[in-house]
């Protein structure tokens, strides 16, 4: 999307969606989100399958949330499960998503390009104002070192070590970084490494959850804590 002189030029895929799916025509009104907190009420001045031109009538800006939820997880071998998570996480209000390469990771590499399209679709559906940041996969240790300054840092794992539930520890406001391991869980060395860098061990309940389910559950807990606190 390009904004120029109070007009919006839609890219080819969005133009096609506008004319062929929504069946909008010249003179119709349409709403456009830019993913940076702005909503534009527009009137269509030109249509076409490869381009559409919209005249901005009114602009509304929404401030970002006063909290930031960053979930980092080891992606599953089946990408459909990660795509499902990215879609639902966007609907629930995730701000940042990272992928971890752990010792027990089933997937060693990934291309986040398709995830961006899925996230954009979820943004439109949920009418969220800000597009989540999607980061490429990083080695677990390197990721920890680069993100050790995060204020509220949690690591979820399924060992028998007694842990407090996330909802008992987390407080509203601030930044959160939640680590979710692969299907085989983090190994002892990874857990020890995270603890040394200030990550708190937390539980998400008595049941053992799949990777994407655990990530979604943790996100939802943090989101509810903050929405309730505002």
List keywords for this structure.
5-stranded antiparallel sheet; elongated; 30% strand; 230 residues; alpha/beta; 33% helix
What's this model, at a glance?
With 230 residues, this protein is α/β, with parallel strands linked by helices.
Report the sheet with the most strands, covering strand number, pairing sense and barrel closure: 7 strands, parallel
Sequence of strands across the biggest β-sheet: 8-7-6-11-9-12-10
Let me know the average pLDDT: 90
Helix percent band = 25-40%
**Radius of gyration over C-alpha positions, nearest whole angstrom:** 20 Å
Note the gap between the termini: 33 Å
Number of strands: 12
**Spans where pLDDT lies below 50 across 5 or more residues:** none
Strand content: 25-35%
Order of helices and strands: EEHEEEEHEHEHEEHEHEH
**Overall geometry:** elongated
Number of helices: 7
Oligomer: single chain
- The computed structural class is alpha/beta
Care to describe what's here?
The chain has seven helices and twelve strands. It is α/β, with parallel strands linked by helices and 230 residues long. The two termini are 33 Å apart. It is elongated, with a radius of gyration of 20 Å.
Fold blueprint:
Blueprint: E1 2-4, E2 7-10, H1 12-21, E3 29-33, E4 38-46, E5 52-61, E6 67-73, H2 79-92, E7 96-101, H3 113-126, E8 133-139, H4 140-146, E9 152-156, E10 164-165, H5 166-169, E11 174-180, H6 188-196, E12 200-203, H7 211-228
Parallel strand pairs: 6-7, 6-11, 7-8, 9-11, 9-12, 10-12
Antiparallel strand pairs: 1-2, 2-5, 3-4, 4-5
Helix pairs in contact: 2-3, 2-7
């Amino acid at each position: 999307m390009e904004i120029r002189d109070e007009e919006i030029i839609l890219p080819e895929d969005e133009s096609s969606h506008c004319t062929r799916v929504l069946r909008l025509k010249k003179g119709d009104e349409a709403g456009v989100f830019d993913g940076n907190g702005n909503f534009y009420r527009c009137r269509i001045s030109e249509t076409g399958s490869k381009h559409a031109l919209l005249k901005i009538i009114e602009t509304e800006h929404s401030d970002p949330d006063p909290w930031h939820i960053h979930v980092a997880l080891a992606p599953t071998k089946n990408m459909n499960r990660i795509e499902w998570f990215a879609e639902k996480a966007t609907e629930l209000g995730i701000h940042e998503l990272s992928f971890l390469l752990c010792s027990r990771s089933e997937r060693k590499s990934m291309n986040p390009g398709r995830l961006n399209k899925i996230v954009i679709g979820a943004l439109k559906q949920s009418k969220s104002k800000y597009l989540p940041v999607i980061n490429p996969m990083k080695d677990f240790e390197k990721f920890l070192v680069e993100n050790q300054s995060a204020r509220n840092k949690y690591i979820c794992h399924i060992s028998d070590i007694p842990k407090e539930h996330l909802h008992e520890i987390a407080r509203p406001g601030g930044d959160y970084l939640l680590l979710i391991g692969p299907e085989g869980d983090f190994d002892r060395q990874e857990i020890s490494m995270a603890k040394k860098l200030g990550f708190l061990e937390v539980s998400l309940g008595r049941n053992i959850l799949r990777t994407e389910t655990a990530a979604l559950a943790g996100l939802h807990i943090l989101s509810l804590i903050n929405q309730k606190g505002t």
